[in-house]
Specification:
hydrolase; 3-stranded mixed sheet; alpha/beta; 15 strands; 8-stranded parallel beta barrel; 15% strand; single chain; EC 3.2.1.21
């Protein structure tokens, strides 16, 4: 028998109603929007150093000013309220709170976040704080960075400072955003800060990010009210084989271990995958994993944050293949340790301005997989969105129908996953504002709100108005 819900899910032109209480929000990251790079005690992060290094970032762009959110935060919160957002996911800038990565907090830095959170709460917007969205204090990188155990220990101390200052206001916390990028793009391929290119350092960084996560969760739990929620956000790669061969299936397995299970294994199951250890044995014996580390990492979570943009397609190769079609930026150095015999392929079809394939079926498949693998763990889409070549027309309007279509299709995939049993509790559109898009500088626009960078003027795009209506009603309209 086909239920009404199943009929709705299978009808592409039908409106879809999300569950009551589903959380609608948008997200940003501190280095991408705040600016004020040297104000009120803030010191350089690894991204300040990386961006100021010639040749690292397109057009020599930096986050020194970004969208000037540090000074325009009240205007930005008013925009969120105007758009009817129920939640705002933002990240704390570690070097703004603890400039050297050690010692006491800088109160001026904490005061900025106190004011921001108070304004959010006054407007009825739930604050969702991420402790780390890639802006490691440069002093900690100078001491070895994430490949060193001490950085994980410093991260737990920073988490405690943040919880002590904001725990009476913020009830939902995320430890790390996309640790895969921090480890493998930052220390493997070098296309992200700090720009190092050492595969063993990348694997060491992945472990110490895992350890930092576990230690930070413990620090948060020790200080937050019992009802507070703790999570981590992973950019789980939905990996597909190019063909049905056994070799391509093994390529999927290998990349899934490096992209996904290197984090979900220790964080959610208390162990690194045996196949990952075997695949990388020629690089390291993993002796940096000490007795007790896995117990420290494997902390109970209230939900898992999931970031999704596009699927990953791989095949077996003879070793002459390339990793440069993996969507993560070009480099002569691979972010995939011990995966020389895996080739990456561009999926067919429509692409965003990032060159990423538009394929919402990957999000559905990913959610169903996570629900199967971790059936008791609720899920939240903490990032999903697309960059397009937006512009303001002569009347000052920004029309972005491609973004509306992208978000509609991906929300339909989320709705279908919910109907099929996935416990998905919220969706955060990436991003609230056009901003500094890492090594792409200001050349890529992900925002629901257009930013005219010379003046800082904010203009809600057509997609922002469309998304506001979905958030207000909880109904995804027919196409």
């Amino acid at each position: 028998m086909v239920t009404a819900a199943q009929q709705t899910a299978s009808a592409p032109d039908a409106a879809r109603t999300f569950p009551k209480g589903f959380l609608w929000g948008s997200a940003t990251a501190s280095y991408q929007i705040e600016g004020a790079a040297s104000e009120d005690g803030r010191t350089p992060s690894i991204w300040d150093t990386y961006a100021r290094t010639p040749g690292r970032v397109r057009n020599g762009d930096t986050g020194d000013i970004a969208t000037d959110h540090y000074h325009r935060w009240r205007e930005d919160v008013a925009l969120m309220a105007e758009l009817g957002l129920g939640a705002y996911r933002f990240s704390l800038a570690w070097p703004r709170i603890q400039p050297t990565g050690r010692g006491p907090a800088v109160q001026k830095g904490l005061d900025f976040y106190r004011r921001l959170v108070d304004e959010l709460l006054e407007k009825g917007i739930q604050p969702v704080a991420t402790l780390y969205h890639w802006d490691l204090p440069q002093e900690l990188e100078d001491a070895g960075g994430w490949p060193e155990r001490a950085t994980a220990e410093r991260f737990a101390e920073y988490a405690a400072l943040a919880a002590d200052a904001l725990g009476d206001r913020v009830t939902t916390w995320t430890t790390l955003n996309e640790p895969w990028c921090s480890a493998f793009l930052g220390y493997g391929s070098g296309v992200h800060a700090p720009g190092r290119t050492d595969p063993v350092a990348a694997l060491r960084a992945a472990h110490h990010l895992n350890l930092g996560h576990g230690l930070a969760v413990q620090a948060l739990r020790d200080r937050l009210p019992a009802a507070a929620q703790c999570s981590v956000t992973l950019n789980i790669h939905h990996v597909r084989p190019l063909t049905g061969t056994e070799g391509d299936a093994d390529a999927v397995r290998r990349i899934d271990a490096l992209a996904n299970r290197v984090f979900t294994g220790p964080m959610l199951e208390g162990a690194y995958p045996e196949d990952l250890l075997k695949d990388t044995a020629g690089l390291t014996d993993w002796s940096f994993v000490r007795d007790g580390d896995l117990e420290q990492i494997n902390q109970p979570l209230d939900f898992l944050g999931v970031n999704y943009y596009t699927p990953t397609v791989v095949s077996e190769t003879d070793g002459s293949g390339t990793h440069t079609s993996d969507g993560h930026g070009n480099s002569p150095h691979s972010p995939w340790p011990a995966a020389d015999k895996v080739a990456f392929h561009q999926p067919p079809g429509e692409r965003t301005a990032m060159g990423w394939a538009v394929d919402a079926t990957g999000l559905y498949d990913l959610l169903r997989r996570l629900s199967h693998d971790f059936p008791k763990l609720p899920l939240v889409i903490t990032e999903n969105g697309a960059a397009f070549d937006d512009y303001a027309d002569p009347d000052g309007n920004v029309n972005d129908p491609a973004r509306i279509a992208y978000v509609r299709d991906h929300l339909a995939a989320v709705h279908r996953a919910i109907l099929d049993g996935s416990d998905v509790r919220g969706y955060f559109l990436w991003s609230l504002l056009d901003n500094f898009e890492w090594a792409h500088g200001y050349s890529k626009r992900f925002g629901a709100v257009y930013v005219d960078y010379p003046t800082g003027t904010r203009i809600p795009k057509a997609s922002a108005r469309w998304y506001a209506e979905v958030a207000r009603t909880g109904v995804l309209p027919a196409a």
